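Troubleshooting: if your tokenizer reports a length mismatch, compare against these two reference records.
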Amino acid sequence: MKKVEAVIKPFKLDEVREALSELGINGLTVTEVKGFGRQKGHTELYRGAEYVVDFLPKVKVEVILPDDLVDRAIETIVATARTGKIGDGKIFVTPVEQVVRIRTGETNEQAI
């Protein structure tokens, strides 16, 4: 099993969720996050004063998958989240050793 974490632009969330759902991936966790990469933030004007916004709003989508679904999920996220502009995000894949569903006690792939 693997954990796939995708940090994407917030307006792409619904497209990514729907595309993953079409792959049969139903459970995911979404967190509103802030960060920056190469774009290094930007400046904004507020009440006549200019200030720097260092951290840009992003959304982190986390999903635990069986190994055989990981590559298709990554391809799907890339295809739906890409705008071609700086700040499209990143995908991180890490191994998952164990999963337990609290309600039933099911473990590993039965729990996801």
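Reference record two:
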Amino acid sequence: MKIKVLRQKKQHTAPYWEGFDVDVTDDMTIAGVLDYINYNDDIIDDTGKKTSRIGWECSCLQGVCGACAMVINGVPAIACETMVKDLKGNEITIRPLQKFPVIHDLIVDRSIIYENLKKINMYIGEYTPAQNKKFKEQKKEHEHQYETAKCLKCGLCMEVCPNYVDGKNFFGALFANDCYLVSSRNQSKAKEVRKSYEEHFGKNCSKAFSCMTVCPMHIPTLASMAKMNRQNGPGR
């Protein structure tokens, strides 16, 4: 199969496509394909020229860290969870996420995600006895809180979002989910979080919901939005 990778030596150098002819099997993941290409000391492209190893990130290779987020055949996805058998055609194109600065090849700088969360102190914090009691009474929220907490911070939701540009004003779907999680578990931070939610998500989200389509953890962001919007409603 022909594998085409959009490569880039350094952050400020021009990107270029490079092809590889690879013997793949249906049970391989895209992470496995990249690992296969990089395995040999001498890596040869589809023109017969020697080239360098493809730069990409991985950690768990089990779909729970989000490090191998990239765009595969035009769709933002996790490489270790994307099977060759599920892709159509005789060619696979792989490029880095485009909403984040490229460091090298498929490796991007997603630090803006964490910088934005730090900027507004998005952490659950400590409970007071009263908050602990109230939290235990909110059993109906526990399932959604658990689902929301699965977020990998992989950036796929931002990559596909038509409203997310550079993270300076609109923070994306993962921010909405974190807002719900923190405000629902720490009442002392709820007012501050609701204000940040409206400023950095609520007033700019166009409700495309493409974020839920690509989320590898299938987080129900729409439910988080509905809960936050109710919190931000009249009388709150």
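Descriptive notes for reference record two:
- The two ends are 57 Å apart (CA to CA).
- DSSP finds nine helices and nine strands in the chain.
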